Amino acid sequence: MASVHHRLLLLITLLAIPASLSSQSVIQMPRKRHRFAASDDSLYCDSWRFSIETNDAGTWSNIPSRCVRFVQDYMTGDRYPSDLASVADYSLSFAKGVTMCGDGKDAWVFDIDETLLSNLAYYQAHGFGSETFNEAFFDEWVDLAEAPALPASLNLYKELEQLGFKMFLLTGRSEHQRNATARNLLYAGYNNWERLLLRGPSDQGTPATVYKSQKRSDLINEGYRIHGSSGDQWSDLIGFAIAQRSFKLPNPMYYIA
After folding, report:
1. Alpha-carbon distance 194 to 105, whole Å?
2. pLDDT reported for residue 39
3. How far apart are CA 21 and CA 115, in angstroms?
């Protein structure tokens, strides 16, 4: 009899639960994760750019087709120079805190393309990185020696010079491009560098990370203290014989391993 009474109480309790509550499970299963739709290109591409700048994306060859307009707007709008200025500000702030020894061995290493010089005019004509890189076409552009300076980098360069740093320009360009490169740097407002380092015959085919690490190692073996290093590629900055502080400039147009 007690058992029947208990069952009746349970039934009455269940019937008293509002329909709005009884329709809900006690354990709520997570809803399906949101997937980016075609209309979310701006959000998708902004996240893609974040992933490549932080090197989370690893090796990549071309920008996604859906992000061509995004990259174009970024490179030609206000955001790109603002980001460059921010990197330069942090670089200079660090440099001003360096204890200089005054022996001519306090060094800063700069990459050139998309670090000191802007090749935006070239990439505007070639899909902002959406086209497969054509070395012959780019070499013709280099020979023109008309790439302008990135203003924030030029200001940083001159400030570092005033602080007493020796500037080493370490580029992936080849030795046969030395004259055109030096002419372009002078045209853009850079001067008084300590050394311009380009790929010689024995450097051809060496991955950029290894090549640049070896060149930095050579400088350290000569007694230079590399306090800072600036580059738009992670391969400009990582590896071995790295600087005390490395500063990554933005570049969503291409990747060099």
Report:
1. 11
2. 57
3. 61
